[in-house]
Specification:
single chain; alpha/beta
C-alpha cells in the first residue's frame, strides 16, 4: 500500500508507524520475530525514524549527525569538524578524487570533507527529506560544484553507480542501519576502483558486550529504539564482515579508548558545568531535564497543530531513551 509523501518528502504514516517496530521492554523486544521484522523492513524503519528525527537532530546537535572526541576547551562544532578531517586525512583524500559518502544525512560531513580535502563528494541517502535538505544546504554554502547528493539504497550501490566507480568511500555512523554489515560492505567494495580505500566510523557495541547479559541487552535496546537501528552488532562483527567481503584492514581502533579528558558522550549528559566553550551552553542546555521538557512540549504542540508529521513527538521521546543508554553504555564501555 502506497502512502502519500509531503512536499518535503516526509511520509507521515511511516513516522507514526516507527514505534510499532519496537517493544519498550527490552526483554520482549529481543525475540527473533521482532528483530527479523525490523531487518526485513529496514528501509521503513530507517526512513520512519529520520522523517521524524532529522529536524530534532539539526536543532539539538548540528548538520553532522555523529559523535566525536573532545580536547579540553574544544568547541562542539570544532570537534565534529576535526573528527571529519581526521577521517579524510587517514584516507589520504585529495583534489581530483571521486569519493562516495555512504549514508550522508543532510550532508554536513560531505561539505566539510570537500572543503578540507578538495575531493569531489557524492552523498548517497535513501531518505527524500534528508536529500532535499542536503542539496539546499550545499547550494547555500556554494559547494554544489564539488558536492552532490543522490537518493539510493546502500545495499544496491553497484546497480546505481556500476562497479569501479569511486576512488574512495566513507561512512560515518550510517552503515549500522544495514540489515547486515556484509550486505553494505560488499556493495561498497564493488563500487571502489582497484586499490580504493574505505574509511568508516562504525557504530557498534564494544568487545565487552555480552548478549546474554540482561543489563547489556537493555543498553543496546535503548540505543536501537532511539536511533532507528534494527540490530546493534559488535566491533568483532564489523571486522569480520570487512574481511569477508574482501577488504584488507589497515587501521582499526576504538577511538573511545583514548584517554581523553572529555568523554565523547558529554553533550548528552545535560551537565552545564561540562560545557567546553560559551557557545556550547546552548547544546548542553537542550539535553538537561529542563531542555528536554521544553523540546518535548514544543514538538507535542507542533504535532497537534499539524506542523510536523504525526509520530514526531513519539520519535523524540525514543531519542531521549537513546541518549540515556548512550551515556550509560559509554561510561561502562559496552
Amino acid at each position: 500500500m502506497a502512502h502519500e509523501a509531503a512536499t518535503d518528502g516526509r511520509v507521515e504514516f511511516r513516522v507514526a508507524n516507527y514505534a510499532g517496530y519496537f517493544e519498550k521492554d527490552h526483554a520482549k523486544d529481543s525475540t527473533m520475530s521482532r528483530q527479523d521484522d525490523r531487518l526485513e523492513n529496514y528501509t521503513e524503519v530507517v526512513n520512519g525514524y529520520y522523517d521524524g528525527a532529522t529536524q530534532l537532530y539539526e536543532y539539538g546537535w548540528a548538520q553532522s549527525f555523529h559523535f566525536s572526541r573532545f580536547y579540553k576547551g574544544e568547541g562542539f562544532r570544532q570537534s565534529l569538524a576535526r573528527h571529519e578531517h581526521y577521517l579524510a586525512a587517514q584516507m589520504k583524500l585529495k583534489p581530483g578524487m571521486k569519493v562516495l559518502d555512504v549514508g550522508c544525512g543532510v550532508g554536513g560531513p560531505a561539505r566539510e570533507i570537500a572543503r578540507f580535502s578538495g575531493a569531489h563528494i557524492t552523498g548517497l541517502n535513501n531518505n527524500d527529506f534528508q536529500v532535499g535538505r542536503a542539496r539546499k544546504y550545499t547550494a547555500d554554502a556554494r559547494l554544489s560544484d564539488t558536492v552532490n547528493f543522490i537518493k539510493g539504497d546502500f545495499i544496491k550501490l553497484s546497480d546505481q553507480f556500476g562497479e569501479n566507480s569511486f576512488d574512495a568511500a566513507y561512512a560515518i555512523e550510517a552503515t549500522v542501519h544495514a540489515p547486515t554489515f556484509e550486505s553494505v560492505y560488499s556493495q561498497i567494495f564493488s563500487v571502489l576502483k582497484p586499490g580504493g580505500v574505505f574509511g568508516v566510523y562504525e557504530w557498534v557495541m564494544t568487545d565487552k558486550y555480552d548478549a546474554s547479559d540482561p543489563d547489556h541487552r537493555r543498553i543496546a535496546h535503548g540505543i536501537q529504539i532511539g536511533d532507528g537501528i534494527a540490530e546493534m552488532r559488535t566491533r568483532t562483527d564489523a571486522r569480520k564482515a570487512l574481511v569477508t567481503v574482501g577488504f584488507q584492514i589497515e587501521h582499526d581502533e576504538d577511538l573511545a579508548d583514548r584517554p581523553d579528558p572529555v568523554p565523547w558522550y558529554y553533550p548528552l549528559e545535560g551537565d552545564l558545568s561540562k560545557a567546553q566553550t560559551i557557545g556550547d551552553y546552548g547544546t548542553v542546555l537542550r539535553t538537561t531535564k529542563f531542555g528536554m521538557w521544553v523540546t518535548s512540549t514544543a514538538v507535542w504542540f507542533l504535532e497537534k497543530l499539524g506542523m510536523v508529521p504525526r509520530g514526531t513527538w513519539s520519535v523524540g521521546e525514543m531519542m531521549k531513551m537513546s541518549a540515556s543508554a548512550l551515556v550509560e553504555g559509554g561510561r561502562k564501555k559496552y
